[in-house]
Specification:
207 residues; mainly alpha; 7 helices
Length: 207
């Protein structure tokens, strides 16, 4: 019967996370075995099969890791655990990370990607989080005629307004005063700001 092929980790990040989890297990075993004077080898023996499985999966992960720096990091972790296994049951050559194979990476269609890079999120259902900030802005809008959302470039101001606050306002029929919200399409500041605002207002009123 042909042995099953090790399932690679999703990438270098998952590999590192699994390494950290293994380190924690060894440290806990060492701490629990202090009274019995258990050394690192003693702590590792019950985990041999787990460590071996980690190494095999790490080696296979090379198919999914292309960046040279990440490949170097992955190989270092393979060497670390392989050396410890070698110390337990005799020396052997350290396994090498598999060559990168772009076919091993899953196809990710662009249209379903939730990350928009440097572009702001829109009201298309992809925006998640910022619930507390959205609620805070909505409370201020109920109380004041002008609310300014400010912050450093790239901090998410536009996404908060376009994908968080405005959809909530459009979903509300009335605000605290009983009047219907009139939500205009967003306009960018520029030389024609007043004209752009007039067009946006006309579109909102159906004119």
């Amino acid at each position: 019967m042909t042995p099953s092929k090790p399932e690679p980790f999703s990438g270098a990040l998952e590999l590192r996370n699994e390494h950290d989890a293994l380190m924690t297990r060894v440290e806990l075993a060492l701490g629990a075995g202090e009274a019995a004077a258990i050394d690192e080898d003693g702590a590792l023996r019950p985990l041999q099969s787990t460590v071996q499985g980690f190494v095999e999966r790490a080696v296979a992960t090379g198919e999914r890791v292309e960046a040279l720096e990440e490949r170097s990091d992955c190989q270092a972790l393979i060497d670390y655990w392989s050396t410890k296994l070698s110390r337990l049951h005799g020396g052997h050559a350290l396994p090498q990370l598999r060559a990168f194979d772009e076919r091993a990476n899953p196809e990710l269609p662009d249209e379903s990607c939730p990350f928009v890079g440097a572009q702001p999120y829109a009201a298309d259902g992809l925006f998640e989080g910022r619930r507390s900030e959205t609620e805070a802005v909505l409370e201020l809008v109920e109380k004041w005629p002008l609310v300014v959302v400010s912050g450093p470039s790239g901090s998410g101001k536009t996404s908060l307004v376009l994908a968080g606050v405005l959809p909530r306002l459009r979903a509300q029929l009335t605000h605290a005063g009983g009047q219907r919200w009139r939500v205009l399409d967003a306009v960018r500041p520029g030389p024609g700001l007043l004209a752009d605002l007039a067009r946006s207002a006309a579109a909102a009123s159906g004119g």
